[in-house]
Specification:
It is a single chain. 41% of the residues lie in helices and 16% in strands. It is of the alpha/beta class. The protein folds into 2 domains: 191 residues, Rossmann fold; 165 residues, 3-Layer(aba) Sandwich (Rossmann fold). It is globular and about 65 Å long. The relative contact order is 0.13.
């Protein structure tokens, strides 16, 4: 087959989990061999974004910028279908919620979640409106809708009134292939950020659904009993005043990708307090490097973490603090969560994601 992969949404280093999904799926497809020709349609910002260096992969750079959202949507609906026909694409897969509504070949679209409904109040109106309209229409017109968790499938079928049989779940994989980080690398990276003692690790972020403000309040309560730091990788949401943070809270801002895994590896535990997640990749990343996970019960997180995490109610600061306290104060519990996490993460791989996605392509091609 000649398969078109639509990555016009991709802003490297900005779109988060959907970038990880794109990279993981493409490299998983490359691992499966070269029996199919794969054309990757990218925008100007992604002209040099790494794709597999395999003979059957071709990058097609489109004359549109993802930062110009309205123009990108227009290009996706008008110009991309013409390009697909020109390149004799037999099936097109749009990975980021939105795809062309009319194409000469059958279409597949991935909806990781319906965040514009669940957390739409945190988005600008124009983004919520366009994302909601085009993703819903793309889902209804596609031959198959792919999503990344059973939680998301249930929501998509219910809220978009999509037939259950039309939605296929392909679970994701951890970001890194190697779970061994040399001690001296971890020590060097920690020292570069001024970390000397035990710490818990979390990803910050501007989105309010990441629930960082409640995590900070829970940590303030815990500081009365625990002697540790909270390391937040990323930027604080606008509802948090950095001037009022304790000296035991380190906010790194943006850090190089090669520093993330060493910092995560050196943590006593990883905390994910989100109010909504369509999958929860950071859980797998923490489990892969043997870091105990304490996370919320929101969205798909229990599905992904399995029995290898301590769960809390994300709306309860007291419950959050209590569960973090229990894991922090118990070496035996941390050891148990560590072993369970290493076992749980074996359920996931990008090769498996690619294999299940390729099966969707074959089914669509046969049906068409």
């Amino acid at each position: 087959m000649r398969i078109g992969i639509n990555l016009l949404y991709l802003l490297p280093g900005t779109v988060g989990g959907t970038e990880t999904y794109a990279a993981g799926l493409l490299h998983g497809l490359a691992q499966l061999g070269n029996q199919n020709e794969i054309l990757v349609f990218v925008n100007k910002e992604s002209a040099e974004w790494p794709i597999p260096q395999a003979a059957n992969f071709t990058r097609v750079i489109c004359a549109v910028a993802a930062t110009r959202r309205t123009r990108r949507y227009f290009f996706e609906q008008v110009s991309l279908p013409q390009m697909l026909k020109k390149h004799d694409v037999e099936i097109v897969h749009s990975l980021g919620y939105v795809g062309p509504l009319w194409t000469s070949c059958p279409a597949v679209v991935t909806l990781p979640d319906l965040n514009y409904l669940a957390i739409g109040h945190t988005m600008p109106f124009y983004k919520r409106y366009f994302l909601g309209f085009f993703s819903a229409q793309a889902a209804k017109r596609a031959k198959v809708v792919i999503t990344i968790s059973n939680f998301s499938k249930k929501v998509i079928c219910k809220d978009l009134r999509i037939q259950h049989e039309k939605v296929v779940v392909t679970l994701l994989g951890p970001r890194w292939n190697d779970n061994f980080i040399p001690y001296d690398v971890v020590s060097t990276v920690k020292a570069s950020y001024g970390i000397s003692g035990p710490y818990m690790f979390a990803f910050a972020g501007g989105a309010l659904h990441k629930n960082i403000s409640r995590l900070l309040k829970a940590f303030t309560e815990l500081k009365k009993e625990l002697s540790c730091q909270l390391v937040l990788v990323g930027h604080l949401p606008h509802d948090v005043n950095p001037g009022r943070l304790s000296k035991d809270i380190l906010v790194t801002g943006y850090i190089p990708a090669e520093h993330v895994l060493p910092l995560l590896s050196g943590a006593e535990l990883f905390v994910l307090p989100s109010l909504y997640e369509g999958f929860g990749l950071p859980i797998l990343e923490a489990q892969q490097v043997g870091v105990p996970v304490v996370c919320s019960t929101a969205g798909s997180l229990p599905e992904v973490a399995g029995e290898a995490a301590m769960f809390f109610n994300p709306y309860s600061i007291a419950d959050m603090a209590d569960k973090i306290r229990r894991v922090s104060c118990s070496p035996a519990l941390r050891a148990a969560l560590r072993q369970k996490g290493l076992a749980n993460v074996r359920r996931f791989s990008w090769r498996q994601t690619a294999r299940e996605t390729l099966a969707v392509y074959e089914k669509v091609a046969q049906g068409h």
